Amino acid sequence: MKKGLNAKAMLSISMAIFGTLGLFTRNISVSSGELALYRAVLAAALIIVYLVVSKQKIDFKAIKGEILLLFLSGIAMGINWILLFQAYKYTTISAATLSYYFAPVIVTVVCPFLFHEKLTGKQIVCFCMSTLGLILIIGVGGAGQGGNDVLGILFGLGAAAFYATVILLNKFIKNVTGIHRTLLQFFAAIVILIPYVACTGGVHLAELDGVGWGCLLAVGLIHTGVTYCMYFSALKELKGQEAAILSYIDPLMAVVVSVALLGESMTLAQLFGGILILGFTLWNER
After folding, report:
1. What phi and psi, each to the nearest 5 degrees, are found at residue 57?
2. Are the C-beta atoms of 33 and 193 separated by less than 8 Å?
3. How far, CA to CA in Å, does 110 sit from each of 103, 106, 123, 167, 245?
4. Contact 197, 34 (CB under 8 A)
5. Which residues of 110-124 are buried (b: 16+ CB within 10 A; e: fewer)?
6. For position 4, what pLDDT does the model report?
7. CA–CA separation, 271 vs 255, rounded Å?
8. Is residue 44 scored above 80 in pLDDT?
9. For 135, which DSSP code?
10. CB 3.0 to 4.6 Å from 93: which of 22, 68, 145, 239, for a disulfide?
11. pTM for this predicted structure
12. Greatest CA span in the chain, whole angstroms?
């Protein structure tokens, strides 16, 4: 009982931290690709330290048969981060996060084609209502920065598509699990992000001020390294339904940060759209 409560607390804290990601990225004056690279490098370094201290070894024999899938999922993760950071730049954190949470809906629609799963009536209803929610978020302007709301939401949807790709590829990865899988995916993301950053402007770390450096370290070490370790440690002790419900702390926290701390506006229509996406996605997962 106590173990389950501790796991719930760890997952809740990690989701709450994830929800503040947009707040920190706003203060880091580097490109989205550069930020994604630093996030992967810092998180990978911290996870390596965690694995060494906890004396966990990676089964390299198991990796051999799934190296391509790990590499592809890592690339998708890197692109997912770039698009999400771009979304934060063009629209509100709440709109970007809610559009990003369309990923489970994409997975629901694609799974019947990839895994020959039957699409139930409940799933069809959830897809239609979540799509309606997305339309409400996109269709209402005036909440973002410089009139680029739609572009930002499209970046958020792009991030959702690549996050869905990561989820789907992970379904094929059977022998490498948890934090080990994530570390290897970070390495793959680093491999692809280094040439991307080199070709799109290079490194600009010298331009960061004290606040920028602090936020960068927080994004890489806290929002990614620490939270991923907490997240996977908690998942071992929780049922899938419990984890699914607690994961919605992330978008709810993002909305609170966006509206209460940053003063970004959110219309009733957008709020209702967000409720539709999160509510029907949660119902589908239950």
Report:
1. -105, 145
2. yes
3. 11, 6, 12, 11, 22
4. yes
5. bbeeeeeeeeeeebe
6. 56
7. 9
8. yes
9. H
10. 22
11. 0.89
12. 54
